[in-house]
Amino acid sequence: MRQLLKDFAKGIWKENPTFVLTLGMCPTLAVTSNALNGASMGIATLFVLACSNTVISAIRKLVPNKIRIPVYIVVIAAFVTIIEMLMKAYAPPALCESLGIFIPLIVVNCIVLGRAEAFASQNGPVRSFFDGAGMGLGFTLSLTVIGALREFLSSGSLFDVKIITAWTTDFLLPSSAPGAFIILGLLMALMNYFNMKKAEKSGKAYIPPAGLDCRHCSICSIKEKKQEK
């Protein structure tokens, strides 16, 4: 149980997909114009991550190594189709329109593919589920925080509820692309600051997680044996 909790918790802070691993930047910057969009995108990704991780882990020994990536994509696409159909059936039309193409693009989200290759393909279904759920929750919290900050700084509202009623004119910078980059950078800097201070109190130097970003992922690598053939 302790290992499962560790697998779950690491995605929330220590290996947060957005602020630490800097993965999934496209939806992070594109759909977080408000808190509702960010939370909805994060929940959709969480569902796909947890379900696809579990299924991929369960079939990992049955899938030949040469076709593992196409199989992973098919599994992920199946769950993306499910969540897309559920959102079209039950979510407000305005929300579906705001998220637009970014829901189908979860299929090729580097967070989902990366966890399938780096974790689910090497561990059991239960651990893989907790890993996917933790990473998905960390991604959801990140997008919600970014969206909430952008929405509040832009119009003085949260989740489409006006907090500052006297705020009648929107501030355009936070809701624009440059504002998204600025807010993301400030949040990443703040997280690094807390991590460094925590390390200093324990008498250690803060070392970011190594080998966990896109440059170290083996999902795009072509093995020498394939090249020889």
Q: Could you explain the architecture of this structure?
A:
With 229 residues, the chain is an all-alpha fold. It has one domain. The chain is built from ten helices and two strands. It has helices spanning 2-9, 25-30, 35-59, 68-90, 93-99, 110-120, 125-155, 172-175, 177-201, 224-228; strands at residues 157-158, 161-162. The protein has a two-stranded antiparallel ribbon. A hairpin with a 2-residue loop joins strand 1 and strand 2 (161-162). Helix 3 (35-59) packs antiparallel against helix 7 and helix 4 crosses helix 6. The longest helix is centred in the middle third of the chain and has 31 residues, at 125-155. It is globular and about 60 Å long.
Number of strands: 2
Number of domains: 1
**Class of secondary structure makeup:** mainly alpha
Gyration radius, rounded: 19 Å
What percent of residues are in strands?
under 5%
Helix content: 55-70%
Order of the strands making up the biggest sheet:
1-2
Number of helices: 10
**Series of H and E elements:** HHHHHHHEEHHH
The major β-sheet equals: 2 strands, antiparallel
How far apart are the termini?
Answer: 45 Å
Q: Which residues sit in consecutive blocks of at least 5 with pLDDT less than 50?
A: 222-229
Global shape: globular
